[in-house]
């Protein structure tokens, strides 16, 4: 109630603004506001969320992921964030976006405070306008001419600009926050307000009362009366900090108010290890006390009183006072619309200040170690790489008990949290480890001439020869869920192809992944390349890993379709190899064998329904609906407890049908199957192209002609799948006999289905690198560039061109030159296939 009264008291203020503020501030704001808000992230459409934020202040957050628990937050807006590029006037669209984000966080139950610059810039805009208007009137009266001469504007004193701009700046903030039913209050402070004990208590009490009434305090230094800036000598200590600029003000305010998080927005992405823009400058993700000795600071920003050095010193002072700090870019057009909310959500934005230094390397350091180790790996002899893989295969069987013990811990912790198909993926067994070891030895055998293999040789001209050879891709990032057996498979393929490898496994397999990675590094150590394979154990979000475009060359997701889609969406500048869905089809032709069709359907659907190569849609030729073949398939599915979903056309043939499928483009990943009816092989192909995912598709058909599909009443299907009898609709007819032979039908299907894997009379489950003889796979790709289908060793290689000459220059091949192009194909060394 008090909050409502307080807001109602503020509302008339917007209607009593000074005339100049109405013309220069609100009128411009209302012109910009609709488009500005349309082009920023639509936070206002998010439903109201109350965040449980109970945290005792006293110690800063150790990790970014903990920032979502921040209750009280200070957002400091630097001068470069608030002002336009010409330093005269405010960046209204940017301000509207910031206000919207602050409002969303406030409405989640957080306590938001703003420390803002901009009064000087706003005042400068107003005073320039007044001076120009005054000069134009005087010149017109003095000269009597219609045109104005060029007018010089005097240098404006900053304190005068601040005095002229404070009220207009606050009026603008008030109007913006009102759009989200939030009230704002202005507080101007000076250094004395913090050093005088009575004033300090008064300020503290005022701020707490405003926060209690759900009001956003907007704090600024009283630039109209503050003395000129002095050196930041007092920032060297940790027990005292003077309010000389808004950086020190924000730090002092954060500590005084015991805030959980201070967000400092500037015009740079964060803190760099050298001045931004220099060739070797790298953004520092996490900054720790004591690291400032290794950082070279550049000049201060184009506007404002403090540079990055002042920001870092103020941030460290606040950190020691128990407040977490993030310095980030608030001016970048692509991220400013969600930079504040991204930081609070724990995303890797800007530089995070932490007092807790992790025991291991950062993910950036791990990626660099993987690249360095991968390059060393690529220089080894093929026999040495094969020896590493053989040793890893031996370790999988020799250390079987330790691996299964770790896996048992994962299974016990996952019990009740993971669905049955995922638990099955998570589980390791002696047979699985033996199969893994066999697959690894296959990879070792096939790796003998993988790297450096000559694909093409050309004599370009006399004594000028060109070769195309295979080389590793670089650094691979493989992200996998609930699949610890994926780790040694992918590691072996990376070793064989000479690639550095960064692994990110699901936390549900943490114990299994840890021991498997240790065994992998033990195998790598026999040739001194232990760091080539890295396991990410930090709290890195997948989205953050996908932004390391300067460190990672290829991302390979292994997991659910949702994981793959999320990675494809998050990857910025890094290619993603994989498939988002495994919607595999099997078409049972009118001339299929009863026994074969039943066996193939059972194996494809029931052997491992959670696999990406499991059958999801069964297409039945219409002539089979009244035959023993169809009855037998349905009986088998009933015995295997497969839930049937009827496609639209199949459902139309039944008076009572199974549950009609919601979508024909569904990957069930469980004992569920969609059945649909088609009239011909061409219709089956069209259906696959429309609803499939280009993964694996199968035709079941036989050689020779088959008798017409005669009528057989198939109530057994209805009894088994519907728990009751249900006659066929009388509209069902036998259909026409195909004029093609079955072999022609099969070849037609194989040639015309545009999928990564197309089979004839074989289970969809054969779509696997191990079963293809590749040893293992990093995944199945449905893309059309570089690699397709099960991706084994060959898919992890690219090429480079080697040109060997003797003082050859292009000018010698000109019209009047002495040399001519030959472009002769030369024999390529035979590949070792043993």
Automatic annotation (TrEMBL):
<keyword id="KW-0521">NADP</keyword>
<dbReference type="GO" id="GO:0004349">
    <property type="term" value="F:glutamate 5-kinase activity"/>
</dbReference>
<keyword id="KW-0808">Transferase</keyword>
<dbReference type="InterPro" id="IPR016162">
    <property type="entry name" value="Ald_DH_N"/>
</dbReference>
<keyword id="KW-0560">Oxidoreductase</keyword>
<keyword id="KW-0028">Amino-acid biosynthesis</keyword>
<dbReference type="InterPro" id="IPR020593">
    <property type="entry name" value="G-glutamylP_reductase_CS"/>
</dbReference>
<keyword id="KW-0496">Mitochondrion</keyword>
<comment type="similarity">
    <text>In the N-terminal section; belongs to the glutamate 5-kinase family.</text>
</comment>
<dbReference type="InterPro" id="IPR041744">
    <property type="entry name" value="G5K_ProBA"/>
</dbReference>
<dbReference type="InterPro" id="IPR000965">
    <property type="entry name" value="GPR_dom"/>
</dbReference>
<keyword id="KW-0641">Proline biosynthesis</keyword>
<comment type="pathway">
    <text>Amino-acid biosynthesis; L-proline biosynthesis; L-glutamate 5-semialdehyde from L-glutamate: step 1/2.</text>
</comment>
<dbReference type="Pfam" id="PF00171">
    <property type="entry name" value="Aldedh"/>
</dbReference>
<dbReference type="Pfam" id="PF00696">
    <property type="entry name" value="AA_kinase"/>
</dbReference>
<keyword id="KW-0547">Nucleotide-binding</keyword>
<feature type="domain" description="Aldehyde dehydrogenase">
    <location>
        <begin position="362"/>
        <end position="625"/>
    </location>
</feature>
<dbReference type="InterPro" id="IPR016161">
    <property type="entry name" value="Ald_DH/histidinol_DH"/>
</dbReference>
<dbReference type="InterPro" id="IPR001048">
    <property type="entry name" value="Asp/Glu/Uridylate_kinase"/>
</dbReference>
<dbReference type="InterPro" id="IPR001057">
    <property type="entry name" value="Glu/AcGlu_kinase"/>
</dbReference>
<dbReference type="InterPro" id="IPR016163">
    <property type="entry name" value="Ald_DH_C"/>
</dbReference>
<dbReference type="InterPro" id="IPR005715">
    <property type="entry name" value="Glu_5kinase/COase_Synthase"/>
</dbReference>
<dbReference type="InterPro" id="IPR036393">
    <property type="entry name" value="AceGlu_kinase-like_sf"/>
</dbReference>
<keyword id="KW-0511">Multifunctional enzyme</keyword>
<dbReference type="GO" id="GO:0005524">
    <property type="term" value="F:ATP binding"/>
</dbReference>
<comment type="pathway">
    <text>Amino-acid biosynthesis; L-proline biosynthesis; L-glutamate 5-semialdehyde from L-glutamate: step 2/2.</text>
</comment>
<dbReference type="InterPro" id="IPR015590">
    <property type="entry name" value="Aldehyde_DH_dom"/>
</dbReference>
<comment type="function">
    <text>Bifunctional enzyme that converts glutamate to glutamate 5-semialdehyde, an intermediate in the biosynthesis of proline, ornithine and arginine.</text>
</comment>
<dbReference type="GO" id="GO:0055129">
    <property type="term" value="P:L-proline biosynthetic process"/>
</dbReference>
<feature type="domain" description="Aspartate/glutamate/uridylate kinase">
    <location>
        <begin position="71"/>
        <end position="329"/>
    </location>
</feature>
<dbReference type="InterPro" id="IPR005766">
    <property type="entry name" value="P5_carboxy_syn"/>
</dbReference>
<dbReference type="GO" id="GO:0004350">
    <property type="term" value="F:glutamate-5-semialdehyde dehydrogenase activity"/>
</dbReference>
<comment type="similarity">
    <text>In the C-terminal section; belongs to the gamma-glutamyl phosphate reductase family.</text>
</comment>
<keyword id="KW-0067">ATP-binding</keyword>
<dbReference type="GO" id="GO:0005759">
    <property type="term" value="C:mitochondrial matrix"/>
</dbReference>
<keyword id="KW-0418">Kinase</keyword>
<protein>
    <recommendedName>
        <fullName>Delta-1-pyrroline-5-carboxylate synthase</fullName>
        <ecNumber>2.7.2.11</ecNumber>
        <ecNumber>1.2.1.41</ecNumber>
    </recommendedName>
</protein>
<comment type="subunit">
    <text>Can form homodimers/multimers.</text>
</comment>
<dbReference type="InterPro" id="IPR019797">
    <property type="entry name" value="Glutamate_5-kinase_CS"/>
</dbReference>
């Amino acid at each position: 109630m008090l909050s409502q009264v307080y807001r109602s008291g503020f509302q008339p203020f917007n209607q009593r603004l000074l005339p100049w503020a109405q013309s220069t501030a609100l009128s411009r704001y209302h012109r910009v506001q609709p488009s500005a808000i349309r082009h920023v992230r639509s936070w206002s459409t998010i439903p109201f969320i109350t965040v449980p934020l109970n945290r005792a202040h006293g110690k800063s957050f150790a990790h970014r992921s903990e920032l979502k628990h921040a209750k009280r937050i200070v957002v400091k807006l630097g001068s470069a964030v608030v002002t336009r590029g010409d330093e005269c006037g405010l960046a209204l669209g940017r301000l509207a976006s910031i206000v919207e984000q602050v409002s969303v966080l406030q409405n989640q139950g957080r306590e938001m405070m703003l420390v803002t610059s901009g009064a000087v810039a706003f005042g400068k805009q107003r005073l320039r306008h007044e001076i120009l208007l005054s000069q134009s009137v005087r010149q017109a009266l003095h000269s009597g001419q219609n045109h104005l001469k060029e007018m010089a504007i005097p240098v404006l004193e900053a304190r005068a600009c601040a005095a002229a701009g404070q009220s207009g700046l606050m009026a603008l903030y008030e109007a913006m926050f009102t759009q989200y039913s939030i009230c704002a209050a202005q507080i101007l402070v000076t250094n004395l307000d913090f050093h005088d004990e009575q004033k300090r208590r008064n300020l503290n009490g005022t701020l707490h009362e405003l926060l209690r009434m759900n009001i956003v305090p907007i704090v600024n230094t009283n630039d109209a009366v503050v003395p000129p800036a002095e050196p930041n000598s007092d920032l060297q200590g940790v027990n005292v900090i003077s309010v000389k600029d808004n950086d020190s003000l924000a730090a002092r305010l954060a500590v005084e108010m015991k805030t959980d998080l201070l967000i400092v927005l500037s015009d740079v992405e964060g803190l760099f290890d050298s001045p931004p823009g220099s060739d070797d400058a790298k953004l520092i993700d996490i900054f720790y006390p004591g690291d400032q000795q290794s950082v070279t600071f550049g000049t201060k920003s184009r506007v404002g009183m403090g540079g990055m050095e002042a920001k870092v010193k103020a941030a460290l002072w606040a950190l020691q006072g128990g407040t977490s700090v993030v310095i980030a870019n608030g001016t970048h057009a692509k991220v400013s619309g969600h930079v504040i909310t991204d930081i609070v959500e724990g995303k890797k934005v800007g530089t995070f200040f932490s007092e807790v230094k992790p025991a291991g390397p950062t993910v950036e350091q791990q990626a660099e170690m993987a690249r360095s180790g991968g390059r060393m790996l690529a220089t080894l002899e093929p026999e040495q790489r094969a020896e590493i893989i053989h040793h890893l295969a031996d370790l999988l069987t020799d250390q079987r008990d330790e691996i299964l013990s770790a896996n048992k811990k994962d299974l016990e912790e996952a019990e009740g949290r993971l669905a049955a198909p995922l638990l099955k993926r998570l589980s390791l067994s002696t047979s699985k480890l033996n199969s893994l070891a066999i697959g690894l030895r296959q990879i070792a055998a096939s790796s003998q001439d993988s790297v450096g293999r000559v694909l093409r040789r050309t004599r370009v001209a006399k004594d000028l020869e060109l070769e195309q050879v295979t080389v590793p891709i670089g650094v691979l990032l493989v992200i996998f869920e609930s699949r610890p057996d994926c780790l040694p498979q992918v590691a072996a393929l990376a070793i064989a192809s000479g690639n550095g490898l960064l692994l990110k496994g699901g936390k549900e397999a943490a114990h299994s992944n840890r021991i498997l990675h240790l065994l992998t590094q033990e195998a790598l150590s026999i040739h001194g390349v232990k760091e080539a394979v890295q396991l990410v154990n930090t709290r890195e979000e997948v989205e953050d890993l996908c932004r390391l475009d300067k460190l990672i060359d290829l991302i390979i997701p292994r997991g659910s379709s949702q994981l793959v889609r999320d990675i494809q969406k998050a990857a910025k500048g890094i290619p993603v190899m994989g498939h988002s869905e495994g919607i595999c089809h099997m078409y049972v032709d009118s001339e299929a064998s009863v026994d074969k069709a039943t066996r193939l359907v059972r194996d494809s659907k029931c052997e491992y329904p959670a696999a990406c190569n499991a059958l999801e849609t069964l297409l039945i030729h219409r002539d089979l609906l009244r035959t023993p073949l169809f009855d037998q398939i349905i009986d088998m599915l009933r015995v295997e407890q497969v839930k049937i979903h009827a496609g639209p056309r199949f459902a139309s043939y039944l008076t009572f049908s199974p549950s009609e499928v919601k979508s024909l483009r569904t990957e069930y990943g469980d004992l569920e199957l969609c059945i649909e009816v088609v009239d011909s092989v061409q219709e089956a192909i069209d259906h696959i192209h429309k609803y499939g995912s280009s993964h694996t598709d199968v035709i079941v058909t036989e050689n020779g002609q088959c008798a017409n599909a005669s009528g057989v009443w198939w109530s057994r299907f209805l009894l088994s799948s519907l728990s009751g009898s249900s006659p066929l609709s009388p509209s069902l007819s036998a259909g026409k006999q195909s004029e093609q032979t079955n072999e022609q039908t099969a070849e037609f299907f194989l040639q015309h289905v545009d999928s990564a894997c197309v089979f004839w009379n074989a289970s969809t489950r054969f779509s696997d690198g191990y079963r293809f003889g590749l040893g293992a796979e990093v995944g199945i790709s449905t893309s059309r560039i570089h690699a397709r289908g099960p991706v084994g060793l060959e898919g992890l290689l690219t090429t480079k061109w080697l040109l060997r000459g003797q003082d050859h220059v292009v000018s010698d091949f000109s019209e009047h030159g002495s040399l001519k192009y030959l472009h002769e194909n030369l024999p390529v060394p035979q590949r070792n296939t043993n």
